[in-house]
Amino acid sequence: MVQKVKAYAPASAANLSVGFDLLGAALRPINGQSLGDFVTAELASPGSGCTMVTVGRFAKKLPVDPKKNIVYIAYQAYKKKLNALGKTCHDLKLTLDKGLPVCSGLGSSASSVVAAVLALDAIHENVLGEAGCLDLMGELEGMISGSIHYDNVAPCYFGGLQLIIEENGIISEGLESFKNWLWVSCFPGIKVSTAAARSILPAQYRRQDVITYGRRLASFVHACHTQNEKLAAACLVDVIAEPYRAQLIPGFDVAREYGKAQGALATGISGSGSSIFSIFTNLEAASEMKEYLERNFIANEDGFCHICKIDEVGANVVEIA
Ligand code: HSE
Hints:
The chain is an alpha+beta fold. It folds into two domains: 4-175 and 311-320, Ribosomal Protein S5, domain 2; 182-309, GHMP kinase, C-terminal domain (Alpha-Beta Plaits), CATH 3.30.70. Helices cover 36% and strands 24% of the residues. The protein has ten helices and 13 strands. The protein has helices at residues 70-84, 108-123, 129-145, 153-158, 194-199, 207-226, 229-234, 242-245, 252-261, 283-296, and strands spanning 4-10, 12-14, 23-29, 36-43, 50-55, 92-97, 161-167, 170-175, 182-187, 266-269, 276-280, 304-310, 316-320. The strands form two sheets. Strands 2, 3, 7, 8, 9, 10, 11 and 12 form an eight-stranded antiparallel sheet that branches. The termini are close together. Bound molecules: L-homoserine.
C-alpha cells in the first residue's frame, strides 16, 4: 500500500494575449529550477483526520488557518467524491510547498489544486482517474476565482500549450508549440487578484473587437498546426484584456517597448497579471530582457524572473513510497 506521494504542478501563463480564457501554457525554467507547487500526502494514523502544513518561499502569504487553504479544501472535496463512490478516504498529513506567489498571474492556485488532487488520487490508487481529477480541479479553481476556467488548470495538469475547448466532452487539447521559443516570465512582486482584474473588463465588446479576437485566435491555432512561427507571433496581440489591465501593472508598457527593441516576438500579460511574459528565440536577447526586468520592473523582494520553455510534462508524481 502506498504510504506517501509527492506531486509537482508547474506554473502556467493563461491567455497568452491572443486567447483570453482559452489558451494557457505550462512553464519550466531553463536553468533546471522548479517553478511550481509541491504537495505531499502521507498516510496518518486512522481516526486522526486530515492535517495540513505549509512550507516554502511563498507559504507566508497563505491564509493562517490551514483549513482555509485550497489544498485542505481539495481534500474535503476529494473525500466527498470518494464517499459518493462508496469508498473511504485515508486520514492524511498534507504538506504544501508553496513555490508560487498568489495573485501573480502564474496560475498559483491552479498549481496548488492540481498538485493536491494528483497526490490525493495517487495515494488512493487513482480512483478518480484523469477525467475525474480534471473535473475536480476545475471545480476547485472555480471556487477561488468565482467562475470555472481551465486556462491554468489544463496546462498545469497536462503540460504544453493547451487550447480550452469545453465542447463535446473535451475540456482541452494540446497545440503544437514552438519548441525554440524562450519565455521570459517575470513577476514584479505586486498582487493582482483575478476577480478584480476581471471586474474592470467591459461587460460587452464592440463587434470589431470580437471579430479581431476570433480571427487572431483561429489564425494562431492554424499557425501552431502549420508551425508558422511568424504568423503565430504576429497574432499575439490582445484586444480583450490588455487594453484595460495594463494600468494595473506599473512599468508594463515600457517593458514591452524594451522587449520590442531587443527583438521580442511578443510581450504580454501573464494570466490576469501582474506577471508578464516576453518571447524570444535568441538566448542572449532573452537574458538581456531578464536583466532589464530584474533591474526595472521588479518592485520588491517577492519578485523574480526566469527564462522558461514550455513545460511539456505538466504535473507529475515526483516521489512515491
Ligand atoms: N483567464 C483568466 C483571466 C485568468 O485573465 O481573467 C486565468 O484563469
